[in-house]
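[INFO] parsing input record for DEAD-box ATP-dependent RNA helicase RhpA
[DEBUG] input buffer:
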Amino acid sequence: MSFESLNLHPSIIKAVQTSGYTTPTPIQQQAIPELIAGHDVMASAQTGTGKTAAFMLPALHRLASPAAVRSRGPRVLVLTPTRELALQVSEAASKYGKFLPRTKVVSILGGMPYPLQNKLLSQTVDILVATPGRLIDHIQRGRVDFSRLEMLVLDEADRMLDMGFIHDVEQIAASTPADRQTILFSATLDSAIDKIAARLLKSPKRIQIASQRAKLENIEQRLHYVDNLSHKNQLLDHLLRDTAIKQAIVFTATKRDADSLADNLSAQGHKAAAMHGDMTQRERTRTLTGLRQGRLKILVATDVAARGIDIADITHVINFDLPKFAEDYVHRIGRTGRAGASGIAVSFASDKDGIHLKRIEKFTGNRIESHVIPGMEPRFKPRRTPRNDAMPRKSPSAHKGKRTWPNNADAPNASSHRGNRTAYGQPQPYGRDERRRSFRSDSLAGSGNYARAK
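[DEBUG] output buffer:
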């Protein structure tokens, strides 16, 4: 199948071919005809399969025809969970719509100055890409006109659910025309997503190309057991000195860890920088630009970078801390092996990480083989179940039965992170652990009495 057979506008096909694409991916083949026909769609596809183009090409095709309502408001609204994903979608819209006349794409994100955003929203907008929290602010101030909105896209709906944005999404949807076309993309189509779709979509077409439990055959997955934080840091330094690494992303559990680890790596001679939710948008954009231009080799990040970063030169992903939720593991390692290229994903695990490792292996259906570097062998002997490729699988959301949704999943005290402690229960060496802890007084050691720290 070719893009010409999808009945897209000739200017869009020209832009796609100029970008070097000749054959649509499976998600594009199935989603684009349904969207051009005007149906609501809920779809799931593995990361890196071209889902952004799957909804953006039909959106641009719609913009090739004049609007039915005259106003300055957007005709297409795309909601994303993170700033990085919003910028990626905006870039895709500009790239695929460059041969269409007068197509204005605007991004409204947290971290950007309000005066600039107010100016952008006062002009005619065709495609508005936004994160929910900042868009709610502008809606409440009456700065957004949705009178001519024709299409609403919820990109990475599962991540917006994780980050506590769904109430904002529903509030935004309620302010748009009832006859809009709605598209929902999610990593998994589980019961929680089905409930959201039932409230926001009208008789949607359901498309599921590949489960997030796919084997990710183009990504080699490795596991290294670690005894303590010092052992982990030694392994990381050794791995990052491999000449096969072109660029790498190292994922940590907390924002403070990302900053401190990036500083440590820089002191060791690595070209490293951190990225997390406490940074301004200008700082995050500058860091990503340095990565894309090759000035940085290593990005140390929290899960804010797990979605929305598409850099072809990332050859390795290292999970310095295992993610708490298994689907986040798939999104993390999906930053490498993009567009059919090969990649390597390395994960560190202590003896206390068994439950997280078990969840990841059940979710992906793959057993991650452990590796040992001579001279850096772990002291403890991990106990693992025998290899079984036909591992029993629970539903994708079974491990989230008691999950809570923080407003900011990147916050140190959010339920998806470990606060100021490592996965193996020891205080982080970076910064001060300020929580109160009881200690045993040496003078009272014989009596078994304990004193409390003031």
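[INFO] The first strand starts at residue 41 and ends at 44.
[INFO] shutting down worker
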